[in-house]
Amino acid sequence: MTTLALDDFIPYRLSFTSNLVSDTIARTYEALFGLTIPEWRLVAVVAETGGITQGMIGARTRMDKVTVSRAAIALVDRGLLARVANPQDRRSHLLSLTAAGETLYAAVAPKAIDLERRIFASFPADEVAGFVAMLRRIDAVTLALVDEAGRVEGC
Predict the structure, then answer these.
(1) Helical axes 37-49 vs 54-61, angle rounded to 10°
(2) Who has the most CB within 10 Å: 18, 29, 90, 100?
(3) Which structural domain range is residue 135 located in?
(4) Cβ neighbours of 67 (radius 10 Å)
(5) Ranges for the HTH marR-type domain (predicted)?
(6) What is the distance between the alpha carbons of residues 18 and 37, in angstroms, rounded to a whole number?
């Protein structure tokens, strides 16, 4: 029988490290800007794309519909996002940053870049680039394992 050493199991390591980094960032965003991680992700994605639907945000960030919806509602209520009917699909809405949302993004983005710099400062640039490239390859391989119904092939 093969045993599983959780601490050496790469999917666990990815999850653990991701949670550790996200929790550190979340404390910073909450303290400085009153934002949760899902709210910050929405602000960042909307800033990068302009008008985007909640469904498109979910697909792009891998956040579930409920998380995206709650974050969008909170940000609209705070006056940071505007929600308008989607002319291409009347069942959805386009989200865009308000002027207050743009101001917030302009304040948060440099902090995010600084946190990333501080986390990776002790690693050589080529190692960081290789790490990011490997993460993207892991994404692609993992997505290829999942069929259209969301099942993992071979399971």
Answers:
(1) 110
(2) 29
(3) 123-155
(4) 19
(5) 1-140
(6) 12
